[in-house]
Write a structure and sequence with these properties.
Elements: E1 2-6, H1 16-33, H2 37-47, H3 51-55, H4 62-65, H5 73-94, H6 96-117, H7 129-142, E2 147-154, E3 157-164, H8 165-187, E4 191-192, E5 195-196, H9 197-214, H10 217-238
Antiparallel strand pairs: 1-2, 2-3, 4-5
């Protein structure tokens, strides 16, 4: 299952920062695919987060640069889809500047946690998923009952259903914790199958904490009221007199 949108939420601002982050990630990825294999390898080594190097006190800048790199089309598409669905809501509740700072801090926290858990790894960590996990953590804290339009594939047949955020995001972070624990137990390392699960967990926890520092309470109330109104109209529309 994967999200494709959420309910009417009373958002008032145009999420320029979300759009800009998506554009930046796509443009950088286009640059990546233009490189030859040796050059792409060197690009990831230079700009991806290599835990061993950071643990040795080198290349701290990669904690930030890595969150704008991606390892493939599906990696990029999945991350940008989640940022598209959830980013605009959080940007509305934080404001443009605060949202950008929030996003960067969550990305830094995600990279730092992965380095802390797996300090000797020589594999570059790349991807925006840690920063986006922070956005998901913020969404879960502010709008746990918000309905997410979600596509399910049942025997290759797609169905669109509304799922509360606490279920969808809760299942996602639970899966990251399970996979991360399994990776540590089986391989005695945090990176399994090229997925940095603890970066996701670190970014998620950072988002839960940081959103309370940056949020605009009036914007949160406005979105909650709009969501409640949407659900009320939906209930009225489904009501059938006996």
């Amino acid at each position: 299952m994967f999200p494709i949108g959420d309910e009417h939420n009373g958002r008032r601002i145009t999420p320029w920062v979300t759009y800009s982050l998506i554009a930046a990630n796509i443009l950088i990825f286009f640059y990546e695919v233009s490189l030859s294999d040796p050059d792409l390898f060197n690009f990831f080594v230079d700009w991806g987060t290599i835990p061993r190097d950071v643990s040795d006190g080198r290349h701290y800048y990669t904690l930030l640069s890595a969150i704008f790199l991606h390892g493939g089309w599906l990696h990029l598409a999945g991350n940008m889809l989640f940022l598209w669905v959830f980013g605009d809501n959080i940007e509305d509740t934080l404001g443009h500047g605060s949202f950008l700072l929030f996003y960067v801090l969550c990305g830094l926290a995600a990279s730092a946690v992965q380095v802390w858990v797996d300090p000797n790894s020589a594999i570059p960590i790349v991807g925006a998923s840690g920063a986006i996990a922070g956005v998901l953590g913020a969404y879960l804290m502010l709008f746990p009952s918000g309905n997410i339009r979600t596509v399910f594939l049942f025997i290759f047949i797609p169905f669109v259903v509304l799922i509360p955020a606490w279920i969808q995001i809760g299942l996602w972070i639970l899966s990251q914790a399970i996979y991360g624990y399994a990776a540590l137990s089986v391989e005695t390392r945090a990176t399994s199958g090229s997925v940095a699960y603890f970066a996701h967990i670190g970014g998620f926890v950072a988002g839960i904490i940081l959103v309370w520092l940056f949020k605009d309470e009036e914007a949160v109330k406005r979105q909650r009221a709009a969501r409640a109104s949407t659900r009320a109209f939906q209930r009225i529309g489904r009501y059938e007199p006996q």
